[in-house]
């Protein structure tokens, strides 16, 4: 991969995975920018779930503060396992370092949000049909853009219909519950291709959560690479130093770009700090971002 000399990100450390209250973080976009600036970060990527609105709201503050801001997003994708008999959720980060994503991409995002809303409406109806007073509006008041089953769980607990999160998922929200409603969702391979087509850099977020044995993990990442995957999140608050070393080596072997970030959510995840993660286990050199920048500049 050719190196580009005039990268805009310079030296120091960056954080390429952070959420604002436009998805499920607690800080406003402006507060997140101020914190990044106080933390001496050389650049920050805003990677809210399913929306660019946090990034867009943060831009004016970032410009005023002289902080390079990266347009990012975290997307929920579906991975079929056991020969297609079941599936799990895989988080894919996408970064747009050169210009805005295509209209097709933003149209697709709007559709995804529409599917989520439809699922939420059907879920509320299913709960109401069983005599529970739970509305979409009540869940949305807790979840905003990203309203999903965890927010329904909170409403169910607050109203005394469920004793705990586990109880709410087991009896009402989980895949085996009678009121479960499946959301239409694209596969990881499909979303990787969609991101590439839109000019973005697709990256597998927190690969530790794939929960796979080493061989299966390697095979799956190879398959994703063939679908167009570009990067692997090496640094993450949930990665121990041993896991960081493992993923760094795996990325090198598979010719994937190393990336990293804290997955900062403000006081929703109190143990995780912007730029440094949990107990300082995240420290992402600006050179990682330089390589991503060079990739889209030349690729
Ligand atoms: Zn995630
Ligand atoms: Zn995240």
Mean pLDDT: 92
CATH class of the largest domain: Alpha Beta
Helix/strand class: alpha/beta
The quaternary structure here is single chain
Number of helices: 10
Radius of gyration: 19 Å
SSE order, as H and E? Answer: EHEHEEHHHHHEHEHEEH
Shape: globular
Estimate nothing, just give the exact number of structural domains.
2
Q: Helix share of residues?
A: 40-55%
Termini separation: 9 Å
Identify the CATH architecture of the largest domain: Alpha-Beta Barrel
Q: Going by CATH, what is the homologous superfamily of the largest domain? A: Metal-dependent hydrolases
Q: Main sheet?
A: 8 strands, mixed
Task: Identify the strand order in the major beta sheet.
Answer: 7-6-5-4-3-2-1-8
Uncertain regions spanning at least 5 consecutive residues: 1-5
- Distinct small molecules: zinc ion
| Beta content | 15-25%
CATH topology descriptor of the largest domain: TIM Barrel
> How many strand segments?
8
Describe this structure in words.
The protein is an alpha/beta fold and 299 residues long. It has 2 domains: 189 residues, Metal-dependent hydrolases (TIM Barrel, Alpha-Beta Barrel), CATH 3.20.20.140; 60 residues, DNA polymerase, domain 1 (Orthogonal Bundle). Helix content is 42%, strand content 16%. Strands 7-6-5-4-3-2-1-8 form an 8-stranded mixed sheet. α1 packs across α2 and α5 crosses α6. The protein is globular and about 60 Å long. The termini are close together. The N terminus is likely disordered. One zinc ion binds next to loops.
